Amino acid sequence: MKLSDALRRAQSIGMDLVEVAPTANPPVCKIVDFGKYRYDLAKQEKEKKASGTKLKEIKFRVNIDAHDYLTKLRHGEAFLDKGNKVRVQLQFRGREMAHQEIGMQLMYKVRDDLSGMGQVEMEPKAAGRNITMTLSPLPAARRKRRFSVEEDDAEAEAANAADNADDDES
Predict the structure, then answer these.
(1) For a Cys staple, 118 with which of 55, 66, 109, 135, CB 3.0–4.6 Å?
(2) In whole angstroms, how far apart are CA 74 and each of 57, 63, 81, 147?
(3) What is the pLDDT of residue 150?
(4) What number of other Cβ atoms are within 10 A of residue 157's Cβ?
(5) Domain edges within the chain
(6) pLDDT tens readout for residues 105-140
(7) How many Cβ atoms from other residues are within 10 Å of residue 136's Cβ?
(8) 1-10 tens-digit pLDDT
(9) 21 class by beta-carbon count within 10 Å (0-12 exposed, 13-18 middle, 19+ buried)
């Protein structure tokens, strides 16, 4: 379409003619409200800046229950899935300090369980009453969730069905 025709059409509608792709051959233009177009561009630019990686933290204790451990792993997977880094912190209290090797074993277990979603950026390191480790997310194509909520719901329903079948037989 000729430039003069496009300008006339845009003015008749009460909108602006905006060049979208100047490097294309021929250049691409759109008939849009220029104020709204600038607002959308600014919004997209802001989203790009905001999508930087954040550091999320998960705290463990040495004597953590299995269910609590799974819940924290699910949160860790969700953080890594969103592209955030995760700092895993294990805290010792009182006499637990005498068995730091148990804490290290737990940290290695966390590392292995989250290996499908992230890679170790900083190995587990003891500092005072804490052991800390940092995980960074894998590229999106290589991530594999192991502890998603849906799997646990399916397992719970299967267990409930089995319990109900046992109750019916009694």
Answers:
(1) 135
(2) 13, 18, 10, 6
(3) 55
(4) 10
(5) 3-50, 55-150
(6) 999 999 999 988 889 999 999 988 999 999 998 887
(7) 16
(8) 888 898 999 9
(9) exposed
> In terms of Cα–Cα distance, which of 98, 106, 114 is closest to 132?
106
55-150 domain in CATH 3.90.79.10?
Answer: no
Report field, pTM of the whole predicted structure over 0.85? no
- The residue assigned the tokens 């250049």 is 27
pLDDT, tens digit, 9 for 90 and up, residues 143-163: 888 887 654 455 545 555 555
Q: Which DSSP symbol is given to 148?
A: -
Nearest-angstrom CA–CA distance, 58 and 89: 6
3-50 domain in CATH 3.60.21.10?
A: no
Rounded to 5 degrees, what are φ and ψ at 29? Answer: -125, 155
d(CA 80, CA 100) in angstroms, rounded, equals: 27
Distance in angstroms (rounded) separating the CA atoms of residues 71 and 136: 19
